[in-house]
Amino acid sequence: MYSIFLVDDEELELEMMRDFIRWEDMGIYVAGVGINGKDAQEKIHAIQPDIVLTDVQMPLMDGLELAKWVSEYYDWMQIVFLTGHDEFNYVKSALHVGAVGYLLKPLDLEEITGVMGRVKQKCEEVRLKYKSIQMTKAKLLKELLHEKDAVRRLQLAAALGKLERREVAGTYTLALCSVDRFTGGETSGTGEAAISRLPEVAEEYFHAVRKDAVVAALQEGELAIFIEAEPGSQPGVSHEQWGTLQQTIRGLLGLSVTLAIDSEETGPAGISRLYERARNLRDERFYLGPGQIIYAGDVKSGYPYDTLPPFPEQEWMEALQQLRGEDAEGVLGEFLTNVRQLRIDKPLVYEWGIDLLARLEERLHSPSLQGYAEPVKRATLYQSIYDCQTLEEIEAAIRRAAAHYLELLMERSTDKNARLVQQVCQIIDQTFHEPITIQSLSSQVYLSPNYLRSIFRDKTGMTIHDYLTRIRLEKSKEMLADPSLKVQDIAQKIGYESTSYFISLFLKNQGVTPNEYRKNL
User: Fold this and answer.
1) How far apart are CA 131 and CA 154, in angstroms?
2) Could you give the CA distance from residue 171 to residue 173 in angstroms, rounded to a whole number?
3) How confident is the model at residue 82 (pLDDT cuts 50, 70, 90)?
4) How many Å apart are CA 242 and CA 238, to the nearest integer?
5) What is the pTM of this model?
6) Could you tell me the CA-to-CA distances from 472 to 155, 164, 413, 429, 493 in Å, in that order?
7) 226 closest CA partner among 179, 252, 261
8) What Å distances lie between residue 22 and 105, 110, 260, 386, CA to CA?
9) What backbone torsions phi and psi does residue 101 show, to the nearest 5 degrees?
10) Is the peptide bond before 106 cis (omega within 30 degrees of 0)?
11) d(Cα 274, Cα 280) in Å, to the nearest integer?
């Protein structure tokens, strides 16, 4: 839709125009109203509508004076006059200051519709022309980002000046808009479509907030946004407007973006320097995380030495080996917090991350874990780290690898313990008739008595004593089927020297004495 600004010193007529004409049906919305030319000037400057419909005769500043002012500062705005005097002089004056047409009072709906149809056509022509100019500017400014030759820079600056209808090209500030990584580190088909629409959404946003901005698409998912300085005013976009742009992109495209904003103003000759500064700002995302708005002056100075602080790798590995996952995470987190605060150069951090994962990978494929994990190529490790945009992502990649290692260690520990418990059960099954103690069992499987008690209960749900008792009683019930065997003989055969103890134990577990059990067979 196109916006229209209404100006009339008759408040009743102004209200009727605003509220009773069905502008929406014509693809137009009322952006504001003014009661005379002076009142309208400030509002038009702030709103910058596509169309100004103004009465001719008004106090303080009439419609013709207002139209001259609009033509001088906003020559792209379409002006339509509103007058009750059907006189040639008014029409001639209106056309002389660039009006598209005029409307006579009282207003006729059919006449309004016809005039607005012509006005919208002019507005569309203006938009197409503006878009063409902006595309050409974007191409020239994009070339200036990397141009080193001084003569070529002068040629590009002269071409910009012609487009801006100035003897010398204007000045700009520069911001970079960079798409943050998609979930899982891969760009989906939907994500690619959203990225392709990013320049269009950014251009429409700046047009809506009436900022002279040139949007140039760089590598995939990154835009250079050149904000043109307005003569006699402060250039730039407010912090709030940058935040709204970020929210607009997220809302319309579902993309998280990082904005790197340098407020320094420069002409074409300094564009490449601004670009380097903006890239350095953008790289702060590595430390700050995604979805940030990063301003020049907020960046901390880097660590003065080309070395990392010492990482307590042995402590970290020991924590993992002993299945103390939280302790390992604490060691890693503290180290990377230090790296973030010191602003260690990214290449050093990437190299450290790759080397650490490589050493962890060696442990994953050590003989103790043989068969539990498939080998990972170093190239894959390299890619998994260098694909990370932020230190937070590197930390997450290392945590995932450590969690996998812990999982395998626990699986190995679980399987090993299961085998040990099975071995203990076999020993009991075969030697139940002999004196058996926890010490004798633990020495045979090379575990401490307490640890053996723990894993046996964990795997079987009972104590070793309970299991031994169950086996002995089961054997005794088999022997009771043989009438030639006396109860005291059976007690000794299953490992109990005391017959009375055996009888009481049998009664407690079976509810009957051995002899009563035999009678019921």
Assistant:
1) 24
2) 7
3) confident
4) 6
5) 0.66
6) 101, 101, 30, 9, 9
7) 261
8) 17, 12, 43, 58
9) -175, -175
10) yes
11) 10
- State the distance between the two ends of the chain, measured CA to CA, in whole angstroms: 98
Closest CA to 45 of 174, 226, 173, 233: 233
Burial pattern 173-186, b for ≥16 Cβ within 10 A else e, equals: bbbbbbbbbbeeee
Contact 338, 395 (CB under 8 A): no
Sheet holding 51-55, edge to edge: 28-34, 2-7, 51-55, 78-83, 101-104
User: What distances in angstroms separate CA 142 from CA 153, 224, 518, one per listed residue?
Assistant: 12, 8, 100
For residue 185, what pLDDT is reported?
40
What gap in Å lies between CA 188 and CA 192, rounded to an integer?
6
- Which residue shows structure tokens 């590595």? 286
User: 356-360 contacts: CB < 8 A, separation 24 or more?
Assistant: 356/311, 356/313, 356/398, 357/381, 357/384, 357/385, 357/397, 357/398, 357/401, 359/313, 360/317, 360/401, 360/402, 360/405
| pLDDT tens string 401-417 | 899 888 877 776 666 77
Please state, rounded to an integer, the average pLDDT across all residues of the chain: 86
CA angle 277, 281, 287 (to 5 degrees): 150
